[in-house]
Amino acid sequence: MKVLLYTENEKMLSKSGLGKAVRHQQKALEDNNSGYTKNPKDDFDIAHINWYGIKSYRLAKWAKKHGKKVVYHAHSTEEDFRNSFKLSNQIAPLFKKWLIKCYSLGDVIITPTPYSKRLLEGYGLKNIKAISNGIDTSFFVKDEKAGKFFREKYGYKEDEKVVMAIGLYLERKGILDFVELAKRMPEYKFIWFGYTDLKLVPAKIKKAVNTKLPNLCFAGYVEPEMIKAALSGANLYIFPTLEETEGIPILEACACKQKALIRDIGVFEEWLEDGKNVYKAKDVDEFEKKIRDILEEKLEDLTEEAYKLALEKDIKTVGKQLIEVYKSLTNI
What local confidence, expressed as pLDDT, does residue 35 receive? Predict the structure, then answer.
């Protein structure tokens, strides 16, 4: 059994959550000693497709015509396409139709969570498996030395409270609320990791990213080592996102035993529990209150329970689940 892991525009997507998911697939298959290729010209039994571009669509059509099996990975939905780039809301209905056209080519559709599975079933799609994008818990571990390096690099004193977030510069990621929180709480430091070309986003997002506050930093894209360092050295990770299919950064925070506060939205309902392994907030007012309560240690530390969750979603487990899907298609 040989699997083609195909990601159109992989280099362009490498800095996104989807890029992380693809790297997790690759490592998961390596850890489980499963053969794969990334070259569509090689021989393969199963095409595992991670994108919805025209080349991906044509490859899936070719594979089916030549008796190959197709696993289509549904990383995107109409719901998480909205409130992202310029004109995304206007073209979202057409985007949904295209997604259905692509995903329908899959003998099996994989999507990260039961929540995104339900969305896709609402599109009329069938044979969908919910498998987490996973987390590499051998890499994302709390590192005190790296945490100190993070604070030194960004000029944070030992007694300063640092609130961090990770994401593209998109409205959907909750960046407007993040800036508002920094305005409301000048006594805390706020730092956002991630980047999007500001030419691609609406004016209000460009304005938010260009906000000048002494306690606010947009650090741009950084390598995973710095994300791990920040998660080890900050005092709180917040995820004010409005829509996700899973959200890999919260898994990274859990793995690094970083305190976490996330938005109370559907995708997190069945696996992240308020007051058990994370804290949740519905709006900016509740985020403000809970940030203060967490940083002032008025709320219980939940990081050990969160770490258990990260272990359950380790990429070794994800790899085994992927291989079971492949085997079901090839009867091996």
Answer: 81
Q: DSSP code of 300?
A: -
DSSP 36-55: EES-TTS--SEEEE---SHH
pLDDT of residue 168: 95
189-193 vs 279-281, strand pairing mode = unpaired
Three-state SS at 256: coil
- Whether 22 contacts 7, CB under 8 Å: yes
Which amino acid type is present at position 28? A
> What is residue 152's three-state secondary structure?
helix
By CB atoms closer than 10 A (0-12, 13-18, 19+), residue 227 is buried
Residues ≥6 apart with Cβ < 8 Å to 124 = 100
- For the record, the structure tokens of 233 come out as 């050295």
Average pLDDT over residues 100-120: 98
Whether residue 171 contacts residue 83, with contact meaning beta carbons closer than 8 Å, is answered with: yes
Cα angle 199-84-131, degrees, rounded to a multiple of 5: 130
Q: Give the Cα-Cα-Cα angle 270, 296, 301 (nearest 5 degrees).
A: 40
Q: Within 66-202, where are the H helices?
A: 78-81, 88-103, 114-122, 144-153, 175-184
Q: What is the mean pLDDT of residues 284-294?
A: 98
Distance between CA atoms of 35 and 306, rounded to whole angstroms?
33
What percent helix, strand, coil does the chain show, rounded to 5?
45, 15, 40
Q: What is the value of pTM for the model shown?
A: 0.94
Single-letter residue type at 251: L
Segment (H or E) for 9 = none
At residue 45, the pLDDT reads 94
Please say whether the beta carbons of 216 and 163 come within 8 A: no
* Reported confidence tier of residue 32, pLDDT bands at 50, 70, 90: confident
Helix (H, G, I), strand (E, B) or coil at 10: helix
Encode pLDDT of 142-175 as tens digits: 999 999 999 999 999 999 999 999 999 999 999 9
